[in-house]
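Comment thread on ticket #2218

A.B. wrote:
> Attaching the input chain for the structure job we discussed in standup.
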Amino acid sequence: MTNYDVKDLGLAEGGRRRIEWAEREMPVLRQIRERFAKELPLKGIRASACLHVTTETANLMRTLQAGGADVVLVASNPLSTQDDVAASLVTHYEIPVYAIKGEDNATYYKHLHAALDHKPNITMDDGADLLSVLHKERSDLLPNVIGSMEETTTGVIRLRAMEKDKALKIPVIAVNDAKTKHLFDNRYGTGQSTLDGIIRSTNILLAGRNFVVAGYGWCGRGLADRARGMGANVIVTEIDPMVALEAVMDGFRVMPMIEAAKVGDIFCTLTGDINVLDAHHFAVMKDGALIANSGHFNVEINIPALEGMAKTKRLVRPFVEEYQLPDGRRLHILGEGRLINLAAAEGHPASVMDMSFANQALATEYLYLNYKNLDKKVYSVPDVIDREIARLKLMAMGVSLDVLTAEQVHYLNSWEEGT
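C.D. wrote:
> Ran it. Output below, let me know if you need it in another format.
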């Protein structure tokens, strides 16, 4: 193969071992791959995926390939690539990959264009960057694109905005909105992997620290719960009164960020919005505060504002940049403000990505079978797919369910009986 751009093919063997290790924790995707290999439901399809290049993603790519798709993979974040995995996909599975951990913005967008040079019929996104470039710069390819999948909350927000503005030219399935994705991946996956990234990059003890979680969506809920489990004093910031009330009832302190900024030791943004942590927050933070992001884009922390305030900046540990302010306070940005769970750790555990990528695989099959009947809008994953993934996951875990009797079914569908 010559059509790839990875750091070092010499890393491939280590990557293959890690891909195989992850596969052990992905029984649902493995069952789908076995069926795909027999039925070839994606035969003849060219697919370009813009996803985090991890061991779990590698197993998704193998599944699509087994189904007959001609696939290409690029990174959806400059810091999320696992270079050994990228090398293994090229070397052992003959899947073109364009991704290098730490690539600059110019390289990142060059790789997005390489994915589109594949002339895909189907695209996959984690953040909607590939689809955005497709619409803005490569619109000549749109007539041959039957649809796309979107993996993350931030991407779905962007796509719904495109739909509202009538700028969306293809149907998109919001994989993120599947229950077996966001209720598990966002909550349990993000909760654990975000803490993993913060701890790996800093080696700090969480117990007794004031841990500020910005946003109480499913990702924020997962992180708040896990941080509390590690002994942190968790503070939540929110804009939605209903969600804030839920956080209070879950036992967390809720306050505006300007108040949380004064007492927080660790901050993590998970909102999908811009400048959640801004100059006026930095101005009141404690000396030594740690600042991380687990939302998709690095815009949640206004790093340019902090750079303008700081008199010096230095790398004090891998993935930890120290900004010293004129008054002597030191604030620390983790992972360049990018997804800390992928910048400094390995992302979500494979067992939870098993369900997320099972949704990707089955949504791809669904899109291929039904695209002629879909409008240029954002669709949810069909409930039948969601339930099938839940069933397969429970079966793999050795969990059995009750079955309603005929009498119980009749009762639930009748109205005559009462008190």
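A.B. wrote:
> Thanks. Noting for the ticket: The chain has two domains: 9-181+348-396, 189-343.
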